[in-house]
Automatic annotation (TrEMBL):
Its EC number is 2.4.1.-. The lineage of its organism: Eukaryota, Metazoa, Ecdysozoa, Arthropoda, Hexapoda. Keywords: Golgi apparatus, Membrane, Signal-anchor, Transferase, Transmembrane, Transmembrane helix. It comes from Anopheles melas. This is Hexosyltransferase. Gene3D superfamilies: Spore Coat Polysaccharide Biosynthesis Protein SpsA, Chain A.
Length: 367
């Protein structure tokens, strides 16, 4: 009798599995067949033509050949040497895909990521109905990344800030013990031959392990949002008074949070009876401390996305940066050295590194 029940249970599980698989296939077919809003990849750029070549290979393979509904908008600062090469790459891609929307803006002056994004967002190259995905040149992505963007960005309701996987320095295991690594500059010596940026198949998922990298929980630079929501006057867009990289993403996130807090204050005023939302607008709120009725709030959705990978590149933190930007840069640089296990293994087996750590501790008054 027991064996009969077990057999019946397994038969039921098989039928359930078949049903779920069938429904999943039907859902995938339905998603593939329905109208998809266009995504515009907005990328701020300053030089880095070789890295941009990798990005364009990724974009061509995934967005143009597979997805077919993802545009590209490059907001580049003009540099005498690299800009002509970047423009030539874009013109070549446009010639091979004449129906694709591949556009670029040329900016002048000192680089500012906030300004580059602001100019791109306000340009005629993207429509109010487009999903803007603000991305960096160091990222690689798959078609699953684009599917998640469309699924997680909801017009007038939700924006998407994916938690990307950030690659550790692949040279760290061989260079962390190299002579000069513990010098005051903290700049690691470069190997005699830099590894070539070999072409890769971007449809194959990047290998995600604790040794390869980490999910950058405190990075907010990649954002998916409808242009119609980004242009809302109460959101205030991106700060254009910040030079260089960094901090503009944090300021933007703070703007979204402030927008939602105003909405929460409005709901609290209604609950406390300080404001009747059904009264004529001319009467206004019962208290001047109650904010005016805002439009829809924008929920912030965050989740790790293993298909979005930030490829390692050496980080140089300019001492002329604003203090907050400089500290953020140093933090990111430290995080990308390598995994805790690798660092622990190197330190406990290296007398010079242990002595260096002791000297650093003593210099800070740690005894």
């Amino acid at each position: 009798r027991i064996s009969h029940r077990v057999k019946s249970l397994f038969n039921g599980l098989e039928r359930l599995t078949d049903t779920l698989a069938s429904s999943g296939q039907q859902r995938s077919a339905a998603v593939a067949g329905r109208h998809r809003d266009r995504i515009v990849l907005v990328i701020p750029l300053s030089g880095r033509s070789e890295t941009f070549m990798r990005f364009l290979r990724n974009y061509e393979e995934v967005a143009l050949r597979q997805d077919g509904a993802t545009d590209l908008l490059v907001s580049m600062y003009v540099e005498p040497v690299e800009t002509p090469m970047i423009v030539a790459l874009l013109d070549n891609l446009r010639a091979r895909y004449p129906t694709a929307r591949i556009n670029y803006l040329q900016l002048y002056g000192n680089f500012s990521r906030g300004v580059a994004l602001d100019r791109a967002i306000k340009s005629p190259h993207c429509d109010l109905n487009d999903i803007l995905f603000l991305i960096d040149v160091d990222m690689v992505f798959t078609v699953e990344s684009l599917d998640r963007i469309r699924f997680n960005v909801i017009r007038h309701r939700q924006i998407y800030l994916p938690i990307v996987f950030s690659e550790y320095d692949p040279r760290a295991p061989s260079t962390i013990l190299a002579p000069g690594w513990t010098s005051a500059t903290t700049e690691r010596p470069k190997p005699a031959i830099e590894p070539a940026d070999r072409p890769r198949n971007f449809s194959v998922p990047y290998r995600i392990t604790n040794e390869n990298g980490y999910f950058r929980q405190f990075g907010y630079g990649l954002v998916g949002i409808y242009k119609a929501d980004l242009m809302r006057p109460d959101l205030k867009g991106f700060s254009t008074d910040i030079n260089g990289w960094g901090l503009e993403d944090v300021k933007f996130l703070e703007n979204v949070i402030a927008l939602n807090q105003r909405g929460n204050q409005r709901l609290q005023a209604i609950a406390d009876g300080r404001w009747d939302p059904f009264e004529p607008a001319a009467n206004g709120p019962a208290s001047s401390s109650v904010p005016p009725p805002p439009s829809e709030e924008l929920a912030i959705f965050r989740a790790p996305d293993p298909s979005l990978v930030h490829i390692f590149h050496p980080i140089h933190c300019d001492t002329s940066l604003d203090e907050a930007q400089y500290k953020m840069c140093l933090g990111t640089k430290a995080n990308t050295i390598g995994s805790y296990d690798m660092l622990h293994d190197r330190f406990i087996h290296s007398q010079p590194l242990l002595m260096f750590a002791r000297r650093q501790s003593q210099s800070r008054g740690g005894g």
